[in-house]
Structure to design on (308 residues):
């Protein structure tokens, strides 16, 4: 069964069974038909991008990057051309997060690791990259993100670093064989101990990080509120020595008005503090994985729709 790219949440598998849900990951194909309420980018000069399934930033000329999520199986890849048209009309580039979920029966992390390393998914990746290579928008591929994330959400996370490196390099090689003009983002969550996962400067054009701030969670479980710079700094420092441009590939924040104003007014104005930070990409959707300590699902859409 092939599924059209749609405007729903990124694809996530069940953390226990490893099964991917029967929905596709988000893209922006549907935005050509209906856009949500208009929102605007935070102030500043750092390049701004969005994962925006509701089309709330469709009319904002400040947006330079459109973030698209897709699983690498079970998707009608032809609809990427619709996404490409939407992006070209707005003079944006495309960041494509390719999530290596496998459809059907429960599929454990060990099986995925073994099959990727054995080349059993080469054809899958080749099929995706062949289509990406035909698009007119500039495309950056982000494969198997947050490989350093220990929360158990992704079957491609917390592999032996040598296996991740071999798998990542293999996927880049497959992509380049059919689409030599693609760029590649290596995108850890930013956790302590990420360094051994770096796959090599020859297969990384840009580094992505995940930066989220939930005021109440920080108060209850992290010893107090943290600003954008306080959350980003240790993650940035862990990757800055690799000598690559750095982006915040996923950004969200939620809290009271003062907390959100501080984040909103800072995320694009940190050039002096983080000179290698080239872009921040806002995740304009509700969280799809429950946070620890029964915190629930933060709604990152509030990052732009701040409370009065």
């Amino acid at each position: 069964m092939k599924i059209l790219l749609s405007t729903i949440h990124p694809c996530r598998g069940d953390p226990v069974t490893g099964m991917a849900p029967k929905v596709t990951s988000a893209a922006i194909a549907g935005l050509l038909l209906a856009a949500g309420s208009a929102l605007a980018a935070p102030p500043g000069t750092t390049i701004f991008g969005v994962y925006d399934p509701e089309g709330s930033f469709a009319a904002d000329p400040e947006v330079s990057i459109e973030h698209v999520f897709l699983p690498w199986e079970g998707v009608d890849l032809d609809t990427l051309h619709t996404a490409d048209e939407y992006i070209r009309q707005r003079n944006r580039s495309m960041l494509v997060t390719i999530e290596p979920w496998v459809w059907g029966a429960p599929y454990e992390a060990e099986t995925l690791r073994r099959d990727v390393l054995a080349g059993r998914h080469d054809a899958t990746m080749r099929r995706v990259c062949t289509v990406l290579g035909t698009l007119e928008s500039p495309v950056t591929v982000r494969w198997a993100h947050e490989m350093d994330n220990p929360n158990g959400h992704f079957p491609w996370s917390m592999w032996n670093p040598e296996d991740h490196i071999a798998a990542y390099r293999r996927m880049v090689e497959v992509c380049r064989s059919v689409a030599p003009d693609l760029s590649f983002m290596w995108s850890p969550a930013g956790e302590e101990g990420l360094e051994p996962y770096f796959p090599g400067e020859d297969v990384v054009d840009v580094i992505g990080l995940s930066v989220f701030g939930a005021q109440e969670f920080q108060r209850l479980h992290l010893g107090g509120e943290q600003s954008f710079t306080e959350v980003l700094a240790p993650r940035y420092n862990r990757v800055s020595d690799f000598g690559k441009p750095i982006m915040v590939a996923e950004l969200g924040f939620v809290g009271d008005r003062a907390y959100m104003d501080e984040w909103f007014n800072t995320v694009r104005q940190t050039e002096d503090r983080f000179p290698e930070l080239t872009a921040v990409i806002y995740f304009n959707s509700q969280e799809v994985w429950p946070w620890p300590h029964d915190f629930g699902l933060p709604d990152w859409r509030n990052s732009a729709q701040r409370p009065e």
Notes: The chain has one domain: 3-303. Residues 6-34 have pLDDT under 50 and may be disordered. The CA atoms of residues 13 and 20 lie 4 Å apart. The radius of gyration is 18 Å.
